[in-house]
Amino acid sequence: MNTLLSKVSVAEDRGRPVLDAATREVVGHAPVHTVDQLNTAIAAAAAAQPNWAALGHAERSRLLHAIADDIDAHAVELGEIITHEQGKAGGEGEAHGAAHWLRAAADTVLEPQVLHDDGTSRAELHYVPLGVVASIGPWNFPVMIAVWHVAPALRMGNTVVLKPSENTPLSVLALAEIFRRHLPEGVLTAVSGDREVGAALAAHPGVAKIVFTGSTATGRRIVESSASNLARLTLELGGNDAGIVLPGTDVDAIADKLFWAAFMNTGQVCAALKRLYVHESIYPDVVEALAERAEKAPMGPGRDKANRLGPVQNPAQFEIVSRLVEDARERGARIVTGGAAAAELGPLFYRPTIIADVDDGAAVVDEEQFGPVLPVIRYTDVDDAVRRANNTEQGLGASVWSADPDEAAAVAQRLEAGTVWINQHGGVDPAIPFGGTKASGYGLEFGVEGLKAMAATKVIRR
Question: What is the CATH superfamily name and number for domain 3-237+440-461?
């Protein structure tokens, strides 16, 4: 029996059902917290924050390490919940990854900065806690991204109220249960509620900082809500990441990386490769190589570790994926492989789909798919490819693929994105800052910059 699940799942008459993404069977029941309960959680967080800050960096880091060890010890149980709720193959890997990122935040050094020292006067820039941080998370990496939010906030002496996605609450509640075992009361509270609770959290006068990962549309609403409390914001929003394959690139050398850049987690990654621009000289070869990999990629329920691709997590997202593919088909695009549901595997499985002979203006190119679909677009001129890649309101990530690293770097400089990868796409590192531009949000996560984002600045002069 999964003891973590039994601790966080409530009785049927006290909660709402949470469904297995692959089978649509009931996994458990999540509590439905109210705005009054949210207010209580924020009050408890505010009361706990001064003492938590007073512990100092060394003690907070020690506790974060203890929590990371506990996550690793329960990674199988936590991974089972992730796989049930989110659908991915590799839930246990996400749990271990969360522990790794937690340790990284605990160990990152952030020292006061000396701004001026002439022997008679001195000015230092210090980073101090903000207070209560609100974390609002997504459903694609529910545990990993919760840690991305929570770890630097706690490390810097803030307390946290954490609201998981309504689609994946149990895994985040289980994560919070592990944190709770090691932290003073009120330092971290998870509140499982509906959109009303999320809106109340974003607008609450007791919240000093909001960190949100999710859609651009929801991000805009959070910005509006935060006007009432002037909370600081870190927003990692949607991305429609473009990749550009330059002429002369060795297709065999990059094909596997290209495919998994687009289809990792069944394409349900904010910084996944969503549009691929390929020079006409190698266009047929790239399309063929991607189609071959799509046809061979093992797909099925995530509880079978042999599977690499799982279901689309929820019916609303499944409908978006289906709509975009059908629109492309109606426009005359070539569905090279896939293009249909894999109903024999379960109600929300969609075959990995490669679409060719499609162009800008098609919905599947202009909109973020967030699913197992990749449009491959032909180009003849690199300048034109850069212009088309930049012709979007979003700017989370982008990539350039080439046998010539200097040529690739020159193109990368021209792309409008928070991160541009060369001969890779979507990889993140706990020491390297990550964030978007344009409508993909603002603020940085990870590393020293991620710690600074969870702090207020204070200048001390003497």
Answer: Aldehyde Dehydrogenase; Chain A, domain 1 (3.40.605.10)
* 241-422 is a CATH 3.40.50.12280 domain: no
320 token code pair: 């978006």
What is the 3-state composition of the chain as percent helix, strand, coil, each rounded to the nearest 5? 40, 25, 35
pLDDT per residue as tens digits for the range 338-366: 999 999 999 999 999 999 999 999 999 99
- List of residues 6+ apart from 66 with CB closer than 8 A: 182
pLDDT band at 89, cuts 50/70/90? confident
Encoded tokens for 307: 């599977």
What mean pLDDT comes out for the span 324-340? Answer: 98
pTM of the model: 0.96
Give the residue numbers marked as catalytic: 236
Query: Would you say the C-alpha torsion 361, 339, 268, 249 has a positive or negative sign?
Result: negative
Rounded Cα distance, 394 and 45, in Å: 34
Using alpha carbons, list the distances in angstroms from residue 163 to 190, 202, 213, 218, 383. 6, 10, 11, 14, 43
Nearest to 443 by CA among 432, 435, 452: 435
